[in-house]
Structures are given as structure tokens and as C-alpha cells.
Amino acid sequence: MRHSSVRARRLAAVSVSLAVAAGAVACGPEDNDAKASSGGADAKPAKGGTLTVLNSNPQQDFDPARLYTSGGGNVPSLVFRTLTTRNREDGAEGSKVVPDLATDTGRPSENATVWTYTLKKGLTYEDGSAITSADIKYGIERSFAAELSGGAPYLRDWLIGGADYQGPYKDKKGLESIETPDERTIVFRLNKPEGEFPYLATQTQFAPVPKAKDTGTKYEEHPVSSGPYKVVENENDGERLTLERNTHWSASTDAERKAYPDKIDVRSGLDSSVINQRLSSSQGADAAAVTTDTNLGPAELAKVSGDKELAARVGTGHFGYTNYIAFNPKVKPFDDPKVRQAISYAVDRSSVINAAGGSSLAEAATTYLPNQKSFGYTPYDHFPAGKSGNAAKAKELLKEAGHAKGLTVTLTHSNAKDFETSPEIATAIQDALKKAGITVKLQGLEDNDYSDKIHNARTEPGFFLAHWGADWPSGGPFLAPIFDGRQIVKDGANFNTGFLDDKSVNAEIDAINKLTDLDEAATRWGALDKKIGEQALTVPLFHPVYKRLYGKDVKNIVISDWTGVLDISQVSVK
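The line above is the sequence of ABC transporter substrate-binding protein; the predicted C-alpha cells follow.
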């Protein structure tokens, strides 16, 4: 889990850097208003036409082994079906895992260390050939090859023998922990209980790949489709991706993807301001356009909000994501819990939210877990600062900690204009802490330097801005990488920034991982979040809210709490 977090954080950062100045995530009540617009629920969706996708970031490495996705991804999910997938519904309903190629979400046995799946009947590739369990096994195995790295690392950690397996190009025997007793059955044997395996089975590594059609690193140019669309053109490593109907895909085996458009034209490498301007103008082909990675910034949102027609074409989302202050308790004075508590009380969340673009783009956070049921959200506020900070309580704690005359500390942040770990947020914290007698010096670093510094156990500063996004909507991939003591990495990317190694916390993580009742697990994750929060190892600041424009001819807007982005498998342009 810890390895995957690098990408989870990076992916969330991609969406948020355009995001909180923008948006990328699940759906709130406002979406219902958006759906009732001229491009929404009043207009019945129909098949046909071309959907244009205008993005900043190219859809690179379009190989199911190399993609790091949540719920199968957005554009990838049009081509690659997986054992399970996300429920394609608005809001909280969209955070559930449902069957895709499989008949169910998996059958656990032997204390959730064995998971068995049965494939649906009649599954075929774009050439009409049958999809078999052996193809899924092979697709997973090739994701272990060094030349196809980049995907989620969980299988390397979870599968028996996964840590040493080198992929099918070097090891022809394959992974013995993946069994295919017949063409429709696949069995996974894990080295520890994992009740959330159905979530993992949504990743593109679980997409079938026919061994005879595998072209190694060139497979991304024309991967064999198991979804409603096939790749007909891939220019400049995903900068221009053209998808057309896979005539051998059958809706009778796929309850999730609507596949209304005849063609999907993905154009990337565009400036975010250009994307929003084109979606705003909605001229020509742009009338049937969406974006999957570019959000409205504060200034753009203000402009859009003043235009009734444009405001009706804004989708709102909430992704499982938290922006926060992190402490390194190995660095003085943050080794003293009272100093950490004092800062927690002193923070002015109202000014932080203003710095993040305002209340339309950020929601105050006092819990580490996002405020969504699937994560196990349990309300708590151990150090109530109110809306504008509690300077008096902070001073009281500082005095108890031996800093009656005040304190000087350094806050490390990124110089990236991402409205989350950037100078605007750091300055808001600096101003609030000054009222409590804490002088904050700001250390701004270029984004790569910032990331390297805060994720290295040897160089991690004592006081810095951080953020986290989950690989799937559960408390597990949110809490474990940050607070499981066994995930502390001394020589590599470390995300347990508070260096917490509490046996009771570690034991509870193991106990929850054994649960296959995901609702019960969520409740336990929430309780664990509340318990860890008492140690003041982080100061939750806000959860981003994402706002995205779509073209005037786009209908059937679905934005789930899993991805928080408009689901292009659902939209119609006719």
C-alpha cells in the first residue's frame, strides 16, 4: 500500500492542482441541478455522435499493466473491463464496488485469504474471440514485468509469491497463487487476509490480455479491447487517442457502461484555461465535449457563477481527499504533543479555505478521513478551533510546553500553484499562528524538491503541508499508508510522516483487513481515525470540492463519490 500511495497522492494532486482551483470528484446535491439543464436529465440520452475529451494530461502508458487507476479509470474503462468495477451512479451510490467481467464481487474463503471469481458467459474481445480466466491471469502476471511497471503494487504485496515474481517474460511458469481450474474460474491466494480485494479487482491490471496478442511495451499502441470501445489511433503516447465502437461488446454482459457515443476523441496537452474557454464557448465539436482532468479555478468559477446558462453546465464532485498539516515528532519542538495541539487550536480554517479558492471549492476538515460514508467518516474535532482559530487556547498550551514567550517554527510547502500545499495556504497558516504567538517562517520548494523532501525519512521537515487521496473509497488505503508503523520506509518513499508505530493501531488495521463486510469495516476505520486523531500528528484543513464545465450538448451527467469526475461511460451527445 505504501508504494501505491506515491501515485495515489500524485494522481490526486494532478486533479487538484487543476482542481481545488478546479475539481475532480464525487457528486453533491448541486449535480441534480446540473442534470436538469439543457444537457441533462430533461433530454433523453441517445446513441450516436462523437464525444470530445479535452484534457491537460495525456493518457500515457495506455496498457492495462502500466495504468494506475481507481475503479478502472475513466478513459481506460471504455476499453478495459475488469473483474469488478465501480457502480456508475451519482454520489454515495457510486462508491460501491459491483461485478464487471465476473458474476459477483468475489467469494472469500479461508479467512479472506482466498478469493474466487466466476466469469460471465459470452464475454468476447474486439475480434470476437472468447475472454477466459487464463487471459485475466496472464494480464495480471505481465503487470509484474519490470518493463511494464507503473500500475498498482498491491498484488505484489498481497499475492503469495508476488514479491519475487518477475513477470511472464522471465518466468514462464507464472504465479502459482493465481489458479484457473477452468475457462470461467479464477482463484487468488493471498499471504494475508484482505477483505477489500473486490476494490482492488477494479484496477486495470485485472483486465484480460490474450497472450497471443501481447506485444510487450508496444501493446499500448493497440491493446485488445474487452470494453465497448477499441483503440483505432494512439498518437504521441496518448496525446491524441481515438476510440470507436467495439462491435463485439455486448450490453447484455455489461450493466455499467452505457456507451452512447459512436466515437470518443481524446485530445490532451492543452492549457487548462484553453480547455475551460472552449467548454464555456461550446462551439462546433466543443458543444459535445467534456474534460476528465481540468477544473474551474476561483476566478473562472466566479465568472461562470454569474452566467445562468454556464452555471447549469457545471458538475460538482467530492473525491476522497484531504489537505492537512503534517508534523514530524522527531523534530523539536514537534516532539511535544502540546505544541502540536497548540497549532491545531490556532489554525484559522476560514482563511485557509479562502486561500484554497473559497467555500465553493473547499470544505473545512477536522477529521483525517474524508467526510463520506464509504470511508467510515466519523465526526470529531479534538482541538476545536472554531472558524477562525482559538489563539487563547493555543497560548495556554504553549505556556504549559515552556514557550510562554512564543515560538518560532518553519513551515515547508510547495511553490506549485495548486491551491492546496502552495504559498497561499502557507501564508494563511502563518497569519493565524501569529495571533497565538507563533512566528512561522515559510520554506517554499519547487514541487519535485518538496515531494522528495517530505517523503524521505532522513530529510522530512518538522512542520509541512501535505495531502492524501485514496486508491479506492475506503478508510484502508487512507489510514494504513500514513499510520501503520510497519509501513515506515527508512530508505525510500515514506508516507507515515508522523512515524507512528503503535501496536494497537497496527493490530486494528490487521483486524479490519480481515472483514469482508465493507460497511462494518467502514465503521471500524472511522473509529480508528478518531483514535489516531487524538495524537495530533496531523491537522486536517480541508477537503477539496471540484467544479467542471461540460459542453452544452452533453447529457446524462454522472459524478460518483468514487472518482469525483464526470463518468464518460455514461454520457450522451445526441
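Note on the example: Confidence is low (pLDDT under 50) at residues 1-41. The two ends are 42 Å apart (CA to CA).
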